[in-house]
Amino acid sequence: MIAIDTNVVVRFLANDDHQQASKARALIERKRILVTLTVLLEAEWVLRSAYGFSPTALVTAFRAFAGLPNIVVQEPGALAKALEWMDAGMDFTDALHLAQMGASEAFATFDVRLVKIAKQVQAAEIWEPDA
User: Fold this and answer.
1) Using CB atoms within 10 A as the burial measure, which of 28, 31, 38, 95 is most buried?
2) Domain extents for the chain?
């Protein structure tokens, strides 16, 4: 198994540099690939901010990428939850934070938008400073 960097994911999904995208595709087709959540976190930021991917396009791209036969995602259940919540309007980073909180009894934040969307999708018990 080979772990990959963010730039391999970005080349594969954005196909902006055809030579590197071709090499990324060949690697992914020939080897089992480990993709860490930190790589996906950075890839989401790059694809959103530098390439203009919409949240819907990101969810679609990440689901398809994670579903490829040779792709092994670190904590696939957390990624699936995060993508579900992102599809419902949550920021990917916030969704990953919540999806990885494990057996914690609550998630503490001052982010009012996160509190609102987390309650809407029933993602987790949220600790609020004024509660």
Assistant:
1) 95
2) 2-127
Instruction: Output DSSP code: residue 68.
Output: S
For residue 131, how far is the Cα from the chain centroid? Answer: 30
Where residue 109 falls (left for φ over 0; alpha for ψ -120 to 50; beta otherwise) is beta
* Mean of pLDDT values over 21-44: 97
3-class DSSP state of 108: strand
Q: Identify whether the C-beta of residue 92 lies closer than 8 Å to the C-beta of residue 58.
A: yes
CATH number at 2-127: 3.40.50
How far apart, in whole angstroms, are the C-alpha atoms of residue 88 and residue 11?
27
* Region for residue 108 given its phi and psi (left: phi exceeds 0; alpha: psi -120 to 50; beta: otherwise): beta
Alpha helices in the chain (DSSP H): 6-14, 18-30, 37-49, 55-66, 76-87, 92-99, 112-120
Predicted model pTM: 0.88
Within 13 A of 3's CA, how many CA atoms are on the CB side? 6
